[in-house]
Amino acid sequence: MADTLEFNEIYQEVKGSMNDGRLRLSRQGVIFKNSKTGKVDNIQASELAEGVWRRVALGHGLKLLTKNGHIYKYDGFRESEFDKLSDFFKAHYRLELAEKDLCVKGWNWGTVRFGGQLLSFDIGEQPVFEIPLSNVSQCTTGKNEVTLEFHQNDDAEVSLMEVRFYVPPTQEDGVDPVEAFAQNVLSKADVIQATGDAICIFRELQCLTPRGRYDIRIYPTFLHLHGKTFDYKIPYTTVLRLFLLPHKDQRQMFFVISLDPPIKQGQTRYHFLILLFSKDEDISLTLNMNEEEVEKRFEGRLTKNMSGSLYEMVSRVMKALVNRKITVPGNFQGHSGAQCITCSYKASSGLLYPLERGFIYVHKPPVHIRFDEISFVNFARGTTTTRSFDFEIETKQGTQYTFSSIEREEYGKLFDFVNAKKLNIKNRGLKEGMKQSYDEYADSDEDQHDAYLERMKEEGKIREENANDSSDGSGEETDESFNPGEEDDDVAEEFDSNASASSSSGDGDSDRDEKKPAKKAKIVKERKPRKKQVESKKGKDPNAPKRPMSAYMLWLNANREKIKSDHPGISITDLSKKAGELWKAMSKEKKEASGEWDRKAEDARRDYEKAMKEYSVGGKSESSKAERSKKKKKKQEKQTKGKAEKKGAASKSLSSTKSPAKSMSESFKSKEFVSSDESSSGESKKEDSEEEGGPSPPPSSEDSASGSD
To answer: How does residue 191 score in pLDDT terms, banded at 50, 70 and 90?
Structure first.
């Protein structure tokens, strides 16, 4: 038989609520660890007195009774696990695991039995319900009636607050059954009564949560916070952890007390009690006990007379009474040398302390996160500025905490700390300055083969080489941006240059020419890109050899149909992704053993190089010669057209000089009275200029001579 048994997702019943965790049974005893709080219950094997197996709401449950009267209930077992547990109890604990069923008759008349810290209401020999007396906060009596009030459970949506028992009168003299019932309850109930004097009192301590100044009275079993408005009584059994944290200014100290269940103020729950002390404040303390009692109870941890810093005295007394260790920051040091990091949580600024086994944020609201409940952490870019970053923590229960506005100088220290604690980091950006813009927000899966990315790279290389080939064919010209809205401006420029070429124009023409030169200079600069763009596009040869495919692309083309048949209805993107996964899954040895696709890729590359040599020697030169002859022919046609237009312009200027009166009268006409003949002639000139596509050459000497005649 195994020495240990472990069960996951077991629920422990505590004050009416079910807390999930892990249960482990060993030779030494029973251990239960709460998944929410991390609290561990350890029951020694020698303390076990009885074990009961019964059917409950969550399947089957195990109830353990100890010799000192404590009761522990664990639910969530399967019926098939009874034999295994029963054999384990017999072999290691020498206990018989008894089976008891609850009474489901629905009667409300029965017998009350007190056993240890448990009140059991039975009908016959079967229990109906049980009440742990530690849940009772108050017990009051009336005529033939006892009322039990319970502590409110903050973790449960609905809490049972009160139960009343009717106690019938008896004929026995001298014994009141109601008072006897109440005494049995009060002897085991968790009713806090401030009886006797306090061990010591700390006056006017500054408390951050709950906010205010409180007197702290230290009693043997509980802590009493007395303020101007509210009083709190905190049993030491509700204290989970103690923290002593130095402030970033090195002049103050935080003392944090973690509570479960929390203290209440109206509808507000305080899971942490945070005290703030100044390091310079000292105190002399005398305990309200004689030296023998102090030595017997605290075993040297406290003395009757003590003196020192106030925060040291409070933490020392609390440690001795609660009997828990005080957690302090570990070896972490931030950029400024402090043991904490300034950040914001839920729009409030505070301090984040990296501890040896978790993180704690002080102070509004206080947060404590253990390493064992963290699923992963994430370093994210700040949303408002690049001078800071966010630190995100997600727990295994799905809760996310975001600590924002952390100075970027703290990134290296915090990253090294998280890495040393072996926490799962969701992203691993650049450690020095987080300069990456995409990898910071994505998972680190760089080794995954991306078929779509490979295809894009191949197409990019093809475009780049084709662009280089076309630039070689077009001479020294380079590609520039093409502005399609400049054709009308270019036409106007050509018309103006033709008009200014005539030496004897009217006054109206001269005024119009004076307004154009600035526009002409601007357009001449912007015209070149269009001409170069057209020439570079014409220089691309469709007969040039195509680049060879890689081994992966050859393999993909050969196996595309097979992948489609294996995965009917698969999309193109999913097909590329699946092909990339299959190619990546092929081992390196398998690829080298077959060598088929590498050989095909090498053959294709050699064929491409051979075709490129032939193309550069023959085909490319012939195509370039044909293009040059076409360009030369077009240039000659433009020159002959320009000469004909210049002759017409010169004859028109000659006729205008012979009839000055007519030209003067025309020069004073407004634009509204321009004749239809002139407008049509202007449109014909515009069409001619659009066909030419460039400025016409200056008139030849023969044209000028004929014009002067």
So the answer is: low
Residue 315 CA to residue 256 CA, distance in Å, equals 10
Which H or E run includes 313?
helix 310-322
- Concatenating the DSSP letter of every residue in 391-437 gives EEEEETTS-EEEEEEEEGGGHHHHHHHHHHTTPPBS----TTT---S
Domain span at residue 173 reads 111-187
- What would you report as the CA-atom Rg of the chain, rounded to the nearest whole angstrom? 47
Q: Which CATH number characterizes residue 95's domain?
A: 2.30.29.30
Q: Is residue 379 part of a domain?
A: yes
Q: Are residues 95 and 127 in the same domain?
A: no
Q: How far apart are alpha carbons 178 and 180 in whole angstroms?
A: 5
Give pLDDT tens digits for 123-145.
888 888 888 887 887 788 888 88
pLDDT at residue 625, rounded to an integer:
61
The answer to whether 275 and 202 have CB atoms below 8 angstroms apart is no
Q: Is the whole-model pTM more than 0.70?
A: no
Cα separation, 495 vs 531, in Å, equals 19
Place of tokens 């020192």: 308
3-state secondary structure 78-129: CHHHHHHHHHHHHHHHCCCEEECCCCCCCCCCCEEEEECCEEEEEECCEEEE
Is residue 234 within 8 A of residue 273, CB to CB? The reply is yes
Pairing of strands 239-246, 326-327: parallel
Q: Is residue 461 part of a domain?
A: no
User: Which own/partner pairs from 380-386 qualify as long-range (CB within 8 Å, at least 24 positions apart)?
Assistant: 380/427, 380/440, 380/441, 381/434, 381/440, 381/441
Q: Which residues contact 581 (CB under 8 A, 6 or more apart)?
A: 449
Examine residue 507 and state whether it is found in any structural domain, yes or no: no
DSSP for 605-646 reads HHHHHHHHHHIIIIIHHHHHHHHHHHHHHHHHHHHHHHHHHH
> What is the number of other CB atoms lying within 10 angstroms of the CB of residue 377?
21
Beta bridge partners of 326: 242
The stretch 294-321 carries a mean pLDDT of 89
pLDDT digit string (tens) for 500-552?
Answer: 444 444 444 444 444 444 444 444 444 444 544 444 444 566 777 888 888 88
**What are the distances in angstroms from CA 512 to CA 76, 266, 497, 508?**
98, 87, 11, 6
> Cα torsion at 148, 152, 156, 157 (round to 10°)?
90
Q: 94-108, 320-334, 483-497, 613-627: which has the minimum mean pLDDT?
A: 483-497
CB 359 within 8 A of CB 352: yes
φ/ψ bin of 337: left (φ > 0), alpha (ψ from -120 to 50), beta (otherwise): left
Sheet containing strand 59-66, edge to edge, reads 40-44, 29-34, 17-25, 5-14, 71-77, 59-66, 48-56, 97-99
Query: Which among 187, 209, 243 is the end of a domain?
Result: 187
DSSP assignments along 155-188, one per residue? SSSS---EEEEE----S-TT--HHHHHHHHHHHH
- In this model, does residue 25 exceed pLDDT 70? yes
3-state SS assignment for residue 15: coil
Closest CA to 96 of 104, 105, 85, 107: 85
CB within 8 Å of 465: residues ≥ 6 apart = 547
- Vertex 689, ends 684 and 690: CA angle to 5°? 100
Beta pairing, strands 97-99 & 48-56:
parallel
Q: Once rounded to an integer, what is the mean pLDDT over residues 628-655?
A: 64
Residue with the two structure tokens 């029965």:
110
Q: Angle of helix 551-566 relative to helix 451-473, nearest 10 degrees? A: 140
**Domain end call among 421, 443, 476:** 421
Tell me how far apart the 2 most distant CA atoms of the chain are, in Å: 157
C-alpha 74/C-alpha 53 separation (Å) is 10
Q: Let me know whether 359 and 406 are in one domain.
A: yes
- pLDDT band at 485, cuts 50/70/90? very low
